[in-house]
Amino acid sequence: MGVRKLKVESGALKYYLFIPTLAILIFMTVVPLAFSLITSFTGYKATENGSFAFNGIDNFVRAWGDTNIRAAFWNTLTFVFFSVGIEFVLGMALAVLLNRQVRGITFIRTFLLLPMMVTPVAVGLLWRWMFNTDYGLINYFAGAWFGSDPINWLGEHIYAMPVVILVDVWQWTPFVVLSLLAGLQSLSSEPYEAGNIDGASAWQIYRYITLPQLKSVILVVLLIRTIDSFKSFDVVWILTNGGPGVSTELFSSQIYRIAFKFWETGYASAVSWIFLIVVMVITSLFIRFLYREDVV
After folding, report:
1. CA distance 6 to 133
2. Closest CA to 255 of 238, 230, 280
């Protein structure tokens, strides 16, 4: 009887031990989400203690007609599309090139990962200095080699977004390379041997053998980078502060500006939930597209 009771208590013990972790998880995720959802239906401002006046869907209606929110939405889509797309193309090409055993390849792989190890704030400061109009290295070499006049890279609409995308590509392409390279090195060699025996070209082997086997890895990499790009804030804020005008204003920086510059907490919460819904819809469509049987 005592042994049976001990077994029952031991079996229940693991659930009791899980309670503190579950409580912390709820406190750190569910409670803030619930609070922000409730706040999004109010006119609450952080500078006005206790002013939780319910205003229905006024915040969401306001966001729908806010030109700054619309600009941030399209800027974010542009930033995510080009940065993730370029990172994937470059990452795949570099992963294929690095997936071979030659002398010094380990050093090259390690060196390639350095940008990913730098904090986003440091990356922003570094590239802001390099693109500085008066004493930046980019203008210096452009003037020395091509004799061109100094360009205000971060202060003109036509250049600001491409520069922001370039910096993001520089920092996060190594992550794509590392992930895809790990996937390539885990592939079985038998299909490649069969393809070579059948006389398949290098492109056919890549198209019909490599890509199908890497499908799940590609999905995970693109999903992670897409979600992470939607949340980008540090580098963009340091480089351009959302400018010039609103040409590089992303959803994340717009939410920050509403919440901590104008202190409209309720409105910021509503915009945050719109942002969350947009990301969820886009990533869901993205997953469905990549899981189609005819994608590769």
Report:
1. 74
2. 230
User: What's the chain's length in residues?
Assistant: 296
Cα 239 from Cα 248, distance rounded (Å): 10
Output the CA–CA distances (angstroms, integers) from residue 35 to 4, 41, 64, 77, in the order listed. Answer: 45, 10, 22, 27
- Rounded Cα distance between 229 and 176, Å, is 13
**pLDDT (tens digit, 9 = 90+) per residue, 213-230?**
888 888 889 989 998 999
Three-state DSSP state, 42 = strand
What span, in angstroms and rounded, lies between the C-alpha atoms of 242 and 75?
A: 10
- pLDDT for 131-188, tens place per residue? 988 888 888 888 777 777 888 999 888 999 999 999 999 999 999 999 999 888 888 7
- The CA distances from residue 203 to 41, 96, 250, in Å, are 55, 12, 38
**Which pairs from 39-42 meet CB under 8 Å and 24+ separation?**
39/265, 39/266, 39/269, 40/266, 40/269, 40/270, 40/272, 40/273, 41/266, 41/270, 42/266
- The answer to whether 174 touches 85, Cβ cutoff 8 Å, is no
**From residue 73, how far is each of 11, 14, 124, 235, 286 by CA, in Å?**
50, 46, 22, 18, 18
pLDDT tens by residue, 18-38: 888 888 888 888 888 888 899
Domains of the chain, CATH where assigned: 66-290 (1.10.3720.10)
Contact partners, residue 95, CB within 8 Å, separation at least 6: 176, 177, 180, 181, 183, 184
Closest CA to 118 of 181, 180, 170, 176: 170
